[in-house]
């Protein structure tokens, strides 16, 4: 999980002064955290004990800077992440934890396909949970000045977990960004939404699938998941569609999409409002994204990751492989995407960073320029668009 919101409850407490927001001497930074910890409800002696053996981990910084996999397009990304083995294991674990998934559906309204998809992508159903020291990772990222405001609160959350005996700074390991357990939750999420699913009196996300799945469902519920509603549905679209009407920021009643010629590939369209999503443009797979789809971006901010996970969840619940997988026009390389983003920034667009990744902000800018240039405005950047802007 890459949900990086500040989850520590500080109701009624004024903003706390940060003695060392980021950077500088690492040991001095740690000393500043000790001074600040009581304001977060963590005794100074607990903070000092937690930080005693913590060191800066340069491999964490390297991992933070190297996330090139998200430069892949949706079709290629899906093919890499969705294997027959993951589908088969999804069916096996769905059966093995059937009672837990039924309980989750009743209590939280979150379908098993969604949880199975994230469980698979995050840790291969608990088999690969990461071997980065969690305390080192969190303090390193808080000390680093790229995103300290996201990770600093998680350090204090980890201290709180340590104080209650649920995290050992010397031995607890997980992902490079500090997530722990089978569905990769940050310490703040564990504090706020952790659930003892197996009834043993502890929330142990590394070893208990029941705890991990129940906690993941509770996180989604807290983020606004709407019980018993769909999230993503593959559709077929006519070639005459107004492509400028597509995109996550333009929802409309499904009946209106139907009137425009959009058809469900299987089953029936829901009566909920939905956005028409074209991950690789008008010639590739097409989906209606319902309100629950937006909730998934609170779990992970990557457009291609969320779209692939949401699609995989539908596969795990019986949907077929998407259509038009090889019909779309090739996109840009990472270097070309960065060049395009630079040109869009020059024209006044906020693309969220010139990083070579086709996120939702870049897609919106691409669609606006396609509309301006009289091109099919499907938000899929091609060499033709890059040439036109250059």
UniProtKB/TrEMBL annotation:
Residue ranges occupied by any Transglycosylase SLT domain in the UniProt entry: 26-313
Protein name: Lytic murein transglycosylase
Keywords (A to Z) from UniProt: Signal
GO MF annotation list: peptidoglycan lytic transglycosylase activity
InterPro entries membership: Lysozyme-like_dom_sf, MltB-like, MltB_2, Peptidoglycan-bd-like, PGBD-like_sf, PGBDSf, SLT_2
Residues in Peptidoglycan binding-like domain copies: 333-389
The species this protein was found in: Pseudoroseicyclus tamaricis
Signal sequence residues: 1-17
Keyword Transport: no
Biological process, per Gene Ontology: peptidoglycan catabolic process
């Amino acid at each position: 999980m890459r949900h990086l919101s500040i989850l520590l409850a500080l109701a009624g407490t004024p903003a706390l002064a940060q003695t060392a927001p980021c950077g500088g001497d690492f040991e001095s930074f740690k000393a500043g955290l000790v001074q600040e910890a009581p304001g977060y409800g963590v005794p100074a002696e607990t903070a000092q004990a937690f930080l005693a053996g913590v060191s800066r981990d340069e491999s964490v910084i390297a991992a933070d800077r190297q996330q090139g996999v998200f430069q892949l397009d949706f079709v290629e990304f899906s093919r890499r992440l969705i294997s027959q083995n993951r589908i088969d294991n999804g069916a096996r674990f769905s059966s093995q934890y059937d009672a837990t998934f039924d309980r989750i559906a009743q209590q939280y309204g979150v379908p098993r396909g969604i949880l199975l998809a994230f469980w698979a992508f995050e840790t291969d159903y608990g088999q690969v949970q990461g071997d980065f020291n969690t305390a080192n990772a969190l303090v390193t990222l808080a000390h680093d000045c790229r995103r300290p405001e996201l990770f600093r609160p998680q350090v204090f959350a980890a201290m709180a977990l340590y104080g209650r005996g649920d995290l050992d700074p010397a031995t607890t390991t997980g992902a490079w960004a500090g997530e722990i357990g089978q569905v990769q939750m940050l310490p703040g999420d564990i504090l706020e939404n952790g659930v003892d699913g197996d009834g043993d009196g502890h929330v142990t996300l590394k070893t208990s699938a029941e705890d991990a799945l129940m906690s993941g469902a509770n996180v989604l519920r807290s983020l606004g998941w709407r019980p018993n509603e769909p999230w993503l549905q593959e559709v077929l679209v006519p070639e005459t569609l107004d492509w400028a009407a597509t995109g996550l920021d333009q929802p409309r009643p499904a009946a209106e999409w139907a009137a425009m010629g959009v058809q469900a590939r299987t089953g029936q369209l829901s009566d909920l409002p939905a956005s028409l999503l074209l991950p690789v443009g008008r010639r590739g797979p097409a989906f209606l994204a319902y309100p629950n789809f937006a909730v998934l971006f609170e779990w992970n901010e990557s457009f291609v990751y969320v779209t692939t996970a949401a699609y995989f969840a539908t596969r795990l619940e019986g949907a077929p492989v998407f259509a038009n997988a090889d019909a779309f026009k090739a996109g840009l390389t990472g270097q070309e995407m960065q060049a395009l983003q630079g040109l869009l920034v020059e024209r006044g667009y906020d693309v969220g960073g010139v990083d070579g990744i086709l996120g939702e902000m870049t897609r919106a800018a691409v669609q606006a320029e396609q509309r301006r240039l009289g091109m099919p405005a499907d938000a899929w950047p091609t060499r033709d668009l890059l040439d036109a802007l250059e």
